[in-house]
Amino acid sequence: SGDWSADVCSSDLFPSHDIDTVAIQKAIDASLEVYIPAGNYIVAGTATYGLLLRENSKITGSGIDSTRLVKSQNNGASFGLLHADSGASGTKLDGITIKDLQCDGLVATLGFSEFQHLISLNGVKNSLIQNVKLKGFRGDGVYIGSSTTGGAERHNENITITECVFDGVNKDNRNGISVIDCDGFEVSNCYFKSCSKSTMPGAVDIEPDAQAFHVVSNIKIINNKFYDIGGNVGAIAVFIPTAAYTTQPKGFLIQGNYINSCASAGVFFAYNASGGITNSTQDLAVKIDSNTVISSNRPFNIPNAKDVVVSNNSFLESVSEALISYNTTENVLDVKLEKNLFSKCGATGGNGLGVFTCSRVLFDGNTFSDCGSGTPGAANAVDFNTGTSSYVSFVNNVFTSPTGKTQVAIQKEAGHTLTVSTNSFFNNVVGTLSNAFTSEFNDAVEQSYSPVVTGSTTSGSGTYSVQYGRWRRIGKIVYFRVKLAVNSGHSGTGMIQVGLPTLAVAAPNNEETICSVNVDGVTSSGGQFGTINPALVVGGLGAIRCYHSATGTVGQTLIPAGAFTVWASGFYQAA
After folding, report:
1. How far apart are CA 178 and CA 139, in angstroms?
2. What is the DSSP code string of 489-548?
3. Helix (H/G/I), strand (E/B), else coil: 7
4. Nearest to 105 by CA among 175, 161, 58, 35
């Protein structure tokens, strides 16, 4: 009875520090608190696990480099050197703690084995792993799952992994941490190095198995360091496969991490919702904040998501571009990129950031410096690639090229469709760089359009030797200027009407706004002017009506039989 004390353990249970599985298991079965003194302990266990933990088990060693549990070569199909399984979907083992020791899987000797994990927790809650070194894992360093049987239902809640070291030794392992099911998971202040085989995801992989019962919510990955990470997804990877989840995934905080040298993306997030990301998709509440990603393949990759904030990060010296969405089969909605630094990104890939199919994306206060390879066609800070975008806003961003690597601030490829009427571009600094981004709300670049003339009685049509229209929208006010040279023989009759670049706001009582108009080639006895009438339809939009004045009267300027030229300029409130 009572706890197994340090003295009892060291003097009675572990005299040889040799093949110690039975002795340690007896201690765990007899006491809730087990202390394992300094030394090397070989753990063989059963065909499916090494040491079996129970509710409120507290396993403590004498230090991260002092107490070393080594996974035996004879432990063929083990899901955990230290293993816990509640045995039922509605049961959680409470209060498991593992501290101050090392678990070693001998990957350098035994090689990769996907399910040879070091710590495996299935159906637990309020668990803590602290100051533990997970070294040479052949599968995962820590596996948070749903038992060793495929399709079995277990749920995990409130698991913290902190101040631990994950040393994959030779990048011939699965992941440092895999989370299949957990509501309330935190990994903080840990160090990851040399993790993950090239065919496996990465150091931290949040990835349910497409089972509707799996829960992945309230995930925090904060203040960790990652170095020399392999894998084919990301150093930090969140991949939610398609399933009709009973509990929708939500709440992902990736904050304050340092990632140096990663074979894939620094941060990856994808939610493969059935039917794609739409307005009806639940907000995922993803925040990627204050991280540093340096010398990785991509800074980040977000192919499918809704409700993502990427803020205050430093993305430095990447090989390829960061990605928002990818190709036409993926989509993101409601993404904010705020106060990030992109420096020397896309040195080989060509761009700092690639944008594909998306809607409601805000770029606010970011700096893009020397992004791209410097080669024409591969030297864009932001590149809108294949797909369609809408409601994209650039505000307060700075685009610089101190060594000439960037040639285009924002590029639009031929395969991308910008929805100009929904986009905005304000208070950005592009210097001498070109900018192909087009937007209706714009304080820097005038847009062009092709105005037309119709008649007020019969619309008709004409041919033009000059058809020039320019406009700029600032806030709700549209400024425009037009020149139309109409050849003789316009078939319309009645007053001259000229199409606007955008819809004008409907005015009370159909009030019309005065603008400047001059028509050459017509007869008028007084000065000329125009009015903007939103109720008219010319090319689907409102129109300018042309008038002239005489003593005490106002007359309509009619379409003449011969050629005529219209100049117009002014402003109006957009609809």
Report:
1. 10
2. ----BSBEEEE-SSPBPPPGGG--EEEEEEEESS--SS-EEEEEEEEEEETTEEEEEEEE
3. helix
4. 175
Per-residue pLDDT of the chain (575 residues; tens, 9 = 90+): 233 333 334 333 333 444 578 889 999 999 999 999 999 998 887 767 889 999 999 999 999 999 999 887 655 556 889 999 999 999 999 999 999 999 999 999 999 999 999 999 999 999 999 999 999 999 999 999 998 788 899 999 999 999 999 999 999 999 999 999 999 999 999 999 999 999 999 999 999 998 999 999 999 999 999 999 999 999 999 999 999 999 999 999 999 999 999 999 999 999 998 788 999 999 999 999 999 999 999 999 999 999 999 999 999 999 999 999 987 788 999 999 999 999 999 988 779 999 999 999 999 999 999 999 888 777 899 999 999 999 999 999 999 999 989 999 999 999 999 999 899 999 999 988 999 998 888 876 677 889 999 999 999 999 999 999 998 887 778 889 999 999 999 999 999 999 998 888 776 655 678 899 999 999 887 889 999 888 777 877 788 999 998 777 889 999 999 999 999 999 988 87
Please report, for residues 226, 325, 439, the alpha-carbon distance to residue 367 in angstroms, rounded to integers and kept in the order given.
24, 20, 20
Cα–Cα distance for residue pair 102/59, rounded to 1 Å:
11
Residue with tokens 């063929």: 76
Whole-number Cα distances in Å, 506 to 112, 410, 465, 536: 69, 34, 32, 10
Which positions ≥6 away from 518 have C-beta within 8 Å? 528, 566, 567, 568
Cα–Cα distances in Å, from 511 out to 204, 356, 517, 533, 570? 63, 42, 18, 7, 16
Radius of gyration in angstroms for the set of CA atoms belonging to the chain, rounded to a whole number: 33
- 3-state secondary structure string across 184-232: EEEEECCEEECCCCCCCCCCEEECCCCCCCCCEEEEEEECCEEEEECCC
Q: Which two tokens stand for residue 261?
A: 């040298």
Per-residue burial over 182-204, b = 16 or more CB atoms within 10 Å of its CB, e = otherwise:
bbbbbbbebbbbbbbbeebbbbb
180 to each of 61, 147, 192, how far by Cα in Å? 27, 10, 19
Q: Is the pTM of this model over 0.85?
A: no
Residues 6+ apart with CB under 8 A from 552: none
Strand partners, 481: 470, 569
Q: Which two tokens stand for residue 209?
A: 């198995």
Check residue 12 and report its DSSP letter.
I
Query: Which tokens go with 513?
Result: 């706004």
Residue 540, C-beta contacts closer than 8 angstroms, at least 6 positions apart: none
